[in-house]
Amino acid sequence: MPIELFVRYGRWFTEQLVPDVEDVRVLGVDRQRDNTFRLKLASGEEVQATAVVIASGMDGIAHVPRPLAPLVAEGLVSHTAQHADLSAFAGRHVLVVGAGQSAQESAALLHEAGAHVQLMARAKRLVFGAAPTPGPHWQPDTPLGRSWALHAVVHQAALFRHLPATTRLGLVKKVLGPFGSWWLKPRLEAVPHLLGQHITAAHKEAGRITVTTQDLQGRTHTLHTGHVLAATGYRVHLDKLDFLAPELRAALERTGGFPRLDKNLGSSVPGLYFTGIHAAATFGPLLRFTCGTAFAAPRLSDALAPSLM
To answer: Could you tell me the pTM of the whole model?
Structure first.
């Protein structure tokens, strides 16, 4: 699906069903003595609420590997979440780190924009999704793809929270792991792949980056590049939600870095709810995707309805 179509749908949805959305950043959320919430907005306003739903998506949780993180401030390393147009890298040497859709598509777009690009990943090989084929198919179709496993993820999300916590965290990490769309494969044929390697160190040297890696046999390699683009995904950790007051974050029970939620997406703090990727450790990988709204919205509505009466 072209991104322009997806954005157009989102804007149409807003106009039709929620036209009064206020586009303003929330700077702070804290809890009052009467258990209501006070929200501080970038507009200078303060809002009181009996309930708050955190639906902040990927904002603030982009993950950059530890060896690269110190070079972000230098402008030598960035995350794919920071870029909407890669044409500014034309003529530059760029190392893309990652194996998923973001990494593969970024590498293809950089190459097509005229950058000198290499793609590095821990994986021994790049994985691509299957191209569409005519039916009939023996596996069921779902919004996330065609398979029996994904059918369970989509249709049994309510039962997911009854699995052991370690199992849930493992499935959230592994289900729909790093892979690229089938149409990317031919676009990456001219891009050098450095597979089976992970970065152990990186430092600035004469305005460029020297990257040290280790392969699967334990051998060390060194390469030089002008910029590293980290397509290394997102990691949920409640402490990264710095708009929540420290006391509020401290009161949240957790499963890994995720909030522990009840059947209606409520947290251990009464009146504070989470949806989207932050609910994935409770209800599974479905909540990482927009289509997970069909599961989350009715449950949130049921929980919030009494407070609106």
So the answer is: 0.90
Pairing of the two strands 208-215 and 220-225: antiparallel
Beta strands in 98-196, from DSSP E residues, in sequence order = 116-121, 141-142, 145-146, 193-195
244: exposed, middle or buried (C-beta count within 10 Å: 0-12, 13-18, 19+)? buried
pLDDT above 70 as % of the chain = 100
| pLDDT tens figures, 81-127 | 999 899 999 999 999 999 999 999 999 999 999 999 999 999 999 99
Cβ neighbors of 45 (< 8 A, separation 6 or more) are 24
Distance between CA atoms of residues 144 and 308, nearest Å? 34
CA dihedral 261, 264, 265, 270 (to 10 degrees): -70
Q: Please confirm whether the linkage preceding 65 is cis (ω < 30° from 0).
A: no
The token pair at 254 is 């957790």
φ and ψ of 215, to 5 deg: -95, -175
Helices vs strands, H then E, count in the chain: 8, 17
* DSSP codes, 218-251: S-EEEEEESEEEE---B---GGG-TTB-HHHHHT
Q: Which structure tokens are listed for 157?
A: 């999300």
